[in-house]
Amino acid sequence: MPAFPEAARAALGDSQLRHNLAHATATIRARRREVVAEVDEWEELRLAGAAVKDAALLRLDEHLVRLEAELTARGVTVHWARDAAEACAIVAGVAEAHAITEVVKVKSMATQEIGLDEALAARGVTAWETDLAELIVQLGDDLPSHILVPAIHRNRAEIREIFVRAMGDAGRPAPAGLTDEPARLAEAARLHLREKFLRARMAVSGANFAVAESGTLVVVESEGNGRMCLTLPEILVSVVGIEKVVPTFTDLDVLLQLLPRSSTGERMNPYTSTWSGLTPGDGPREAHVVLLDNGRTRALADELGRQALRCIRCSACLNVCPVYERTGGHAYGSVYPGPIGAILNPLLRGVGTDEQVDSLPYASSLCGACFDACPVRIDIPGVLVELRAQVVDARRGTARHAAEAVTMRAAAATLASGRRLGLAQRGAGLLRRVTRRSVFSWLPWPGSRWTGARDLPAPAREPFRAWWRRTGGGRR
């Protein structure tokens, strides 16, 4: 993917995309605002959620060890994956050990993060997405554009066209005469997926939370596809980021009050599935849990940035972000778009090695709306500023940094001397009088890289010092 400015420029030229995003995010914002207003102690609940996550991260090693012990005691095989390659190899190994060629999947950010679908396909295993929006993205040979609503960039006419064109190649075709009525589109998806649910021997899920004290995994969803995946197949593999662990069910209680209101604008999720190991005669006969690092310990080591690991993937920050609303998720070049993606990707992957990743901390106006919306109070603007500093530090001494360094040294030399500053002020004022312009719309290169997207404020006709001398210290 190109760096954010280039990708965003292309997105801004798509008027249909901007219309789809504006309509969808405005709808979600309004619903969230209504249900949040019902909770008198909402700010106290946000503080509690942040405290729960911070406490869990502070003793993450202890909670993970206990989670492993509890899961193992309940018949689950626990794997540890340092990176995406290890995690994909573990899941593919389970499939190959049982001669499985297709799996059904619950919507999972972690499996998208590691590129699991592509890794399984390379080893002859087809992964079918069962979340409606993920199905749209998969059938459309597209990429997710939102954490909660991956197909938010599509309208219903586009979805109908995708179903009619692509469903038959992936299984049961779309019904004849399919319209773009939402109920009919949902029915077509349900009929298409039902045969996959009934046929699949293996399912792959993520987890919204993992409770250490009981070895319980939790999946929160709205369509029932998660419940089908978690109960029908013989084998279940769950890929879980290590930051998802919470110590107790009491901690979970706080987060389950915050998540549905912040994500879908609901008081409670339609489906909240919990499972603690294997139960003979009920559900899968074999279960695996892959505990995924993939940069999370790197983020944990960042004193300011580690708060990003509080994230409960609600997407509230995306829905209020003026930048995301105009560019969409694809411009961020990652499975984690929007404000949280702008900090999470650099924290997980590190800065200074990839231009696309380094561009993300600048994909923000720093308006602060994301912090106000975040249910666990992640100071996204503060982390963005810190990451910008890290990007600059990582580029010191490089050719890319040379022009900026020369400019800053020239500015420092000018500002350090009263005489030089005075000369610069008089020169700027003279330039304004000569050009007779109140605003300079451009500067020659390399200054044009700044003025190409910004107005350049006009210098004063009379420098402050000259005014001070002329008026006798401000007295008339």
Automatic annotation (TrEMBL):
Residues 308-378 form the 4Fe-4S ferredoxin-type domain. The keyword Iron-sulfur applies. Residues 394-471 form the Lactate utilization protein B C-terminal domain. GO terms for biological process: lactate metabolic process. PROSITE patterns: 4FE4S_FER_1. Residues 66-291 form the LUD domain. Keywords: 4Fe-4S, Electron transport, Iron, Iron-sulfur, Metal-binding, Repeat, Transport. GO terms for molecular function: 4 iron, 4 sulfur cluster binding; metal ion binding. This is Lactate utilization protein.
